[in-house]
């Protein structure tokens, strides 16, 4: 298979950070609403970025609540966040083949910046598209990446851990790959969503890269090709912090 680029979701795909989102939301919501939200209730709010979720739940004091959430998120992130084992190898294998890399996530720019900074990920990705307060926009984010890369959808894959992300990939016209290596993932449900491949482990994903993805780097050129024409690093509030 010849791929010009691979786009990744963030939470539950590259990083084991969903529990951190739950802890931070629970603390902020209890402080400002007096209510304890369950993980399921918090997940039910996903779609908008954290800024959008908090604006809807705490409309009168959302800025203070957001600050409390970000403080709790960064503190918990330093304590417990991790890259899934093998992810760095997978990214390196794709880069060795000349494949461009991007992130499209529903998370807001401030928490994405925390993750990129802690794991030194900014330099690994050509494009980072974050979520917006208005609601889920992953197909639009994927489309913007395609435009920046100047490539066709059938030469790009999107890797995500939820059935909705499989649907987002289909809407955008890109190849859908299911990431079921988070212990909380439902691999059977994800597979039923119809991705081209579902990987129960990062090791299986690496094996797929090794056996399926063609190198588009000329043997006489450096391993890491230049960013494709038209690409611009999308940083908004992320910076290179």
CATH architecture of the largest domain: 3-Layer(aba) Sandwich
Percent range of helical residues: 40-55%
CATH topology title of the largest domain = Rossmann fold
Structure class: alpha/beta
Low-confidence stretches: 219-237
CATH level 1 class label of the largest domain = Alpha Beta
Instruction: Please trace the helix and strand order, writing H or E for each element.
Output: EHHHHHEHEHEHEHEH
What's the number of extended β-strand segments? Answer: 6
Q: Provide mean pLDDT, rounded.
A: 90
Q: Could you characterize what this model shows?
A:
The protein is α/β, with parallel strands linked by helices. The protein has 2 domains: 5-16 and 82-212, 3-Layer(aba) Sandwich (Rossmann fold); 18-80. Helices cover 45% and strands 10% of the residues. It contains 10 helices and 6 strands; from the N terminus they run E-H-H-H-H-H-E-H-E-H-E-H-E-H-E-H. The protein has helices at 18-33, 39-45, 50-57, 62-80, 87-96, 109-118, 138-149, 163-172, 187-192, 202-212; strands at 5-8, 100-104, 127-129, 156-160, 175-179, 197-199. It has a 6-stranded parallel beta sheet, with helices on both faces. Strand 5, helix 9 and strand 6 form a beta-alpha-beta unit. Helix 1 packs antiparallel against helix 4. The model is unreliable at 219-237 (pLDDT under 50).
């Amino acid at each position: 298979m010849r791929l010009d680029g691979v786009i990744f979701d963030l939470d539950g795909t590259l990083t084991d950070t969903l529990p951190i989102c739950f802890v931070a939301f629970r603390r902020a919501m209890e402080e400002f609403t007096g209510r304890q939200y369950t993980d399921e209730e918090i997940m039910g709010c996903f779609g908008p970025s954290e800024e959008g979720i908090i604006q809807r739940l705490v409309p009168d004091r959302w800025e203070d609540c957001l600050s409390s959430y970000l403080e709790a998120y960064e503190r918990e992130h330093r304590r417990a966040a991790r890259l899934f084992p093998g992810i760095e190898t997978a990214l390196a294998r794709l880069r060795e083949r000349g494949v461009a890399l991007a992130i499209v996530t529903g998370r807001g720019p401030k928490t994405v910046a925390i993750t990129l900074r802690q794991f030194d990920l900014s330099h690994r990705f050509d494009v980072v598209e974050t979520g917006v307060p208005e609601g889920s926009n992953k197909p639009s984010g994927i489309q913007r990446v395609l435009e920046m890369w100047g490539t066709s959808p059938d030469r790009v894959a999107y890797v995500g851990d939820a059935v909705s992300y499989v649907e987002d990939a289909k809407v955008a016209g890109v190849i859908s790959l299911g990431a079921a290596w988070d212990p909380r993932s439902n691999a059977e449900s994800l597979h039923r969503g119809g991705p081209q491949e579902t990987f129960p482990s990062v090791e299986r994903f690496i094996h797929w890269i090794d056996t399926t993805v063609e190198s588009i780097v000329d043997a006489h050129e450096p391993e890491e090709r230049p960013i494709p024409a038209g690409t611009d690093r999308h940083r908004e509030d992320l910076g290179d912090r």
